[in-house]
Amino acid sequence: DTPGSIAAMPGDIAVSFEYFPPATSKAENLLARTSQRLSAFAPSFVSMTYGAGGSTRERSLAAIRKLVDEGSAPVAAHLTCVDASRDQVDDMAMQFHASGIRHIVALRGDGGEPGQPFTAHPQGYANAAELVAGLRKLADFEISVAAYPEVHPDAQSAQHDLDNLKRKLDAGATRAITQFFFSADACLRFRDRAVAAGIDAPIVPGILPITNFAQTCKFAGACGAQIPAPMKAVFEGLDDHPETRKAVSIATTAELCRKLYEGGMREFHFYTLNRAEQIEAICHLMGLRVPARVEAAA
Ligand code: FAD
Fold it and tell me: Ligand 1 test: best mutation among 164, 177, 190, most atoms within 8 Å of CB?
């Protein structure tokens, strides 16, 4: 009798949450509250991003140690190889290892200026596949890598990009987490193409709830994610209405997740932007429940 498809979501999913290193003590407190609230969903892991070229190296390490100390979920450290020698990257990986990290999200990173082509460091790993192979030799890390449902802007073609993903998995990665996207069909088609190419590692959709639509459009343009016309239409006129925008974002993101669920996806990685509110609502709509105890404390 219940109208709408959201009600049908049974919550038989696994979630993971991505955070970025906070820059101020206020931001640190926000992250601590967010991670405490989201830990109620028993994430399979939480991850901490890494500034390209090590620009947030110390902050990443400090934030990672905090998450490890919290102990509420296994922690994955992102690690990029741009602008660093192999020795520097390996050293960072071993510092993560010494801090208790056993899962690395291995990434190439991007060049300094937006739009500038990536150039490998002369003594560095040339790309993420080489980084994965290097990490495998260093320690027994679980390794996740990036995937691009709408094709990485540097790729010669969709097939080249898929071949590159396969190289990263063949080098020892065991999971692909996707760039954010707003078309469920694009992601499901990509998953199908990956399976047809013999990829059997999980492809975990990266979900970005929108906070600032104009900014998201700009960011999406830079990384090749399309904004479907119906989505533009639902956010139209909301630039000065943050509360309504948030509610609309929860509805559209939950709808995206529901379509992915219907397409067979059961793992979801959330780009939290260090905020809990929207993600909590989306997870709830997907059938996960916050224990009453935690909700009362938040
Ligand atoms: P790669 O897999 O090396 O590929 C990049 C491009 O180069 C692809 O188009 C590929 O096809 C092409 N390519 C690679 N090798 C070859 C080859 N041998 N021949 C021809 N073409 C090749 N960035 C950060 O700075 N910090 C983060 O913490 C971070 N976290 C991220 C998390 C996720 C889940 C995702 C999806 C992205 C993240 N990024 C992060 C962004 C990432 O660094 C960029 O997208 C970067 O441009 C590519 O990284 P990659 O690991 O996918 O690179």
Answer: 164
Between the CA of 178 and the centroid of ligand 1 the distance, in Å, is 11
Say whether pLDDT at 8 is over 80.
Answer: no
- CB-based contact 224:178 (threshold 8 Å): no
Cα(131) to ligand 1 centroid in Å equals: 11
Give which of 178, 81, 68 is closest to 125, Cα–Cα: 81
Contact 252, 234 (CB under 8 A): yes
In whole angstroms, what is the distance from residue 152 CA to residue 36 CA? 33
Residue 78 alpha carbon, nearest atom of ligand 1: 28
Is 50 in contact with 79 (CB distance < 8 Å)? yes
Sign of CA dihedral 214, 215, 216, 218: positive
Is the pLDDT confidence value at 64 over 60?
A: yes
Q: What is the ipTM of this complex?
A: 0.98
Looking at residue 89, what DSSP letter applies? H
- Non-local CB neighbours of 271 within 8 Å, separated by 6+ positions: 18, 180, 206, 207, 208, 209
Instruction: Give pLDDT, residue 195.
Output: 98
